[in-house]
Amino acid sequence: MKEPTKQQPGEQPPEPVTLRQLVGHPVLAGAEHAGGASLDRQVRRVSVRAGVDPAGLGSGDLIVVSGAVDASGWQVEAGIRRCALAGIAGLVLPVRDRGPLATTVLLAERLNLPLVLLPADASPNDVALRLAQLVATPEVVRSEQVLRFVRRIRGQVDSLEAVTTAVAEVIHAPVSALGPDGALVHGRHGPASFRRDLNLPQVVVEGEFTHVIQPVSVGSAPLWLVAALRLPAPAQVEVAQAVLATAEPWAMSWLATRRLAAERDARARTTLLADLLRLREDAGTVTRHRAAILGWRLDGWHTAAYLRRLNEPPTDNLTDRDEIARALAQAGIDGPLVEQSDGWVAWQTVRDEPSPQEVKVVLEAVRRTLALLGSRIELAAGVGRLHPGIGGLARTVDEAREAALSIDPTSVDVSQDPAARVAHIDALGVGRLVRAWTRSRSARALANTLLAPLADQETLLATLDVYLEHESSVVATAAALGLHRNTVSDRIARTQRILGVDLRDPDDRLAVELACRALRPNVRRTSSKSQIANS
Amino acid sequence: MSGAAESTAESFVDRLAGDDVEALERGASLLGSGGGGHPRLGALWLNRELAGGAEVRVVGVDSLTGWVLPVAAAGSTASVAVEKLSAGDELRRCVEVAEQHLGIEVDTIGVLAIGGGNALFPFIAAAQTGKPVPDADLTGRAFSGLEQTVVGCGPEFTGTWVSAEAHGAAMVIDGAGPPAAERVMRGALAGLGGWAALAYPPLPADTFRRLALAGTVSHALRLGHQHRQAAQAAEDGATLARRLGGEHLGRGTVLEVHRGSGGKYAGGSVAMRSPDGDGLFRVEMGDEYTMVLRDGEVVATTPDVICLLDTHRRQVIPTGQVRRGHEVDILLLPVPDRLWHADVLPRLAPRAYGLDADPVRYRAGGPVPAPGGGS
């Protein structure tokens, strides 16, 4: 170690290490830094000496005294003077029975020689070896630590904590896990901010702490592993990066296992609810048994809430489930939560017939839930009535879905006021019921089939829509569109021909009008009066 | 700093009188280098002898004839002798037993060490026997072991050693050199009551003249008188050092005293900082102060005499009494050049006191390693 490290041609010399970074190294934990001398000197070489002897050494040299030196002896004091005159970067001195005399420490301070006192149980040779590796051959430290991690983690991990603990033990620094939203899910140290939008390893320096961040990518939202290093040497950061990168597959395998289990559970929930809604009172013992296993109470009185997603797909209902469940529980709804294709169904069950007020309580709780979720997960929610038994569960879920569908996400007050995104089935008029129906899947299916021949006839479709809106009056339609009434009657005639319907027939008329209602948002968005007029 | 007064010229006094005893006490105390036992007890004793009509003549080494019997005290005169008081006639009996046993008549009582408590005992013996004391000694400072004289383990000191204790017992060690005599004395001291008068093998006058450091009694008396005048004039450390012909190494407040335990030598260190905070001093000690470091640099070692003086009272602080908070002046007093010669140096260099260091002789403007040092 006394020879300077020889660099292979073309190899980058290790980044210089400051004494402060070495003092922060775990191997010096418990060591005392005596004297106020500057720790910002660069250390280029670590030398082991039997005594405080700087012979042949100079600036950039850190001396680790390994001999049985009495720290209180005069030789140490005389040695400190010689070290300071030689410009030594620092002195690591083991203290056995007794620390250095007051004058020794004062002299080190006066001569600006950093003095690090090793506790009696530390091995100076070990300390010297670790520090020298850090200074001269950081890649050796890196591979050694990666190996240590692999040996420690060995086999399957049963928790995320097993991964973070193993990393923490190897790199001697606290390791935390952050959720997709940057909140701590495990551990205590996390950076105040980092680029969560970049799914890449990152290093964030905040004050004394350097956070080494490794993403664990599963699905759309990554989990983050974060090591918090205090005043690390560059080599220590590299070690943490290497070990965290090695740990990523383990964290990922744990996540994947958990995800698989979650998917299985979600499927079980969804199919069971579908069965219950279909079979109602006819549900057999097998179905009831499955419900019992999931802890669903089928007797008693149910009030359902249907949470419909408004966000543009793709969305991950499974990933967001935890957040929804948390918000619901916080708002006071702690019943089952079941994934649906466009959202979730939640319901509350009580044993005895509750007061009618219960519905208001649920309604209020759903409003609070939406407020708690904020803007990341946008929902429209419907709440059903109170119904008893298995059939009651199916009814209240149906009602809740209908109420949720009644909310038009494009209307102004819905986008402005989150409270307007919650509807109760009782609050729906006939008109809203129709609107709710037109937003249903069956309505879309009808509209697409019936109006398919007009798919590329935007002008005819828009004219038809306005015509039906104006009670089949050619005059009123012409006025509304600013056209001649002959143009309108001509278009309507063509439309009837293409669709093969007679609008004077009440049944045909109703079917076409409902189909138009189902498509209306699209028609209104894509057409304007002038476009219709000019074509 | 050149060697201390080494001359065969006229003695400072030819007979101890009046304030000479106090001067001798002060001088011996300074030359004790913090050890050697405090001469206070011996001074009181000698004063009583002189008050009783006895007289002590001091003669130059040139006029010596017949036999010279070097006398000292063995054991801990610093602590034990204060509690276990002397009978009063140990020294006389010691001389008498030696004379009887060897069948000679001693002409002169020799001084073994002019530093510390041992400086006074030959004068008491002289007062009690009426024999004169030569103006010389065999150590030039205090000694911690019987071989630490200029004679060392030379053939001159292989012979008959006589020890007498307070209850009347006397012990004769025959045919032994200093190491053997020391070994026997250490073993016997408990039985002798902790301390006892000790006569070295007598030396013929010619041999004594050849070996002894002449003029050191006068030197001690001169130091003592100067020290008293300085104390009366309340001089500061630097002025006092100049007056004594020594060097003022610095002034400091004791921050910490560390005393080692076990081993043959009771080692220890005194950490000091100058009042302005600029100077850091560290004084190493064994039985005596042995080394001074200034800002981590060794500036002085034995055999030069290192004194720690109380800054306010100007009294010598022995190694056993220095404590935290003391404000002290560090003085360096020269010793006869002979002590720096290669044949004597090893017995008085720091290693002889258990300190693993080469001797360094102080030079104003910087220390220099002693010639022949490190042996």
UniProtKB/TrEMBL annotation, chain A:
<dbReference type="Pfam" id="PF17853">
    <property type="entry name" value="GGDEF_2"/>
</dbReference>
<dbReference type="Pfam" id="PF13556">
    <property type="entry name" value="HTH_30"/>
</dbReference>
<feature type="domain" description="PucR C-terminal helix-turn-helix">
    <location>
        <begin position="460"/>
        <end position="518"/>
    </location>
</feature>
<dbReference type="InterPro" id="IPR041522">
    <property type="entry name" value="CdaR_GGDEF"/>
</dbReference>
<dbReference type="InterPro" id="IPR051448">
    <property type="entry name" value="CdaR-like_regulators"/>
</dbReference>
<dbReference type="InterPro" id="IPR042070">
    <property type="entry name" value="PucR_C-HTH_sf"/>
</dbReference>
<comment type="similarity">
    <text>Belongs to the CdaR family.</text>
</comment>
<protein>
    <recommendedName>
        <fullName>PucR family transcriptional regulator</fullName>
    </recommendedName>
</protein>
<dbReference type="InterPro" id="IPR025736">
    <property type="entry name" value="PucR_C-HTH_dom"/>
</dbReference>
<feature type="domain" description="CdaR GGDEF-like">
    <location>
        <begin position="287"/>
        <end position="404"/>
    </location>
</feature>
TrEMBL record, chain B:
<feature type="domain" description="S-Me-THD-like C-terminal">
    <location>
        <begin position="180"/>
        <end position="359"/>
    </location>
</feature>
<dbReference type="InterPro" id="IPR024071">
    <property type="entry name" value="S-Me-THD_C_sf"/>
</dbReference>
<dbReference type="InterPro" id="IPR010318">
    <property type="entry name" value="S-Me-THD_N"/>
</dbReference>
<dbReference type="InterPro" id="IPR048350">
    <property type="entry name" value="S-Me-THD-like_C"/>
</dbReference>
<dbReference type="Pfam" id="PF20906">
    <property type="entry name" value="S-Me-THD_C"/>
</dbReference>
<dbReference type="Pfam" id="PF06032">
    <property type="entry name" value="S-Me-THD_N"/>
</dbReference>
<protein>
    <recommendedName>
        <fullName>Hydantoinase</fullName>
    </recommendedName>
</protein>
<feature type="domain" description="S-Me-THD N-terminal">
    <location>
        <begin position="19"/>
        <end position="173"/>
    </location>
</feature>
<dbReference type="InterPro" id="IPR027479">
    <property type="entry name" value="S-Me-THD_N_sf"/>
</dbReference>
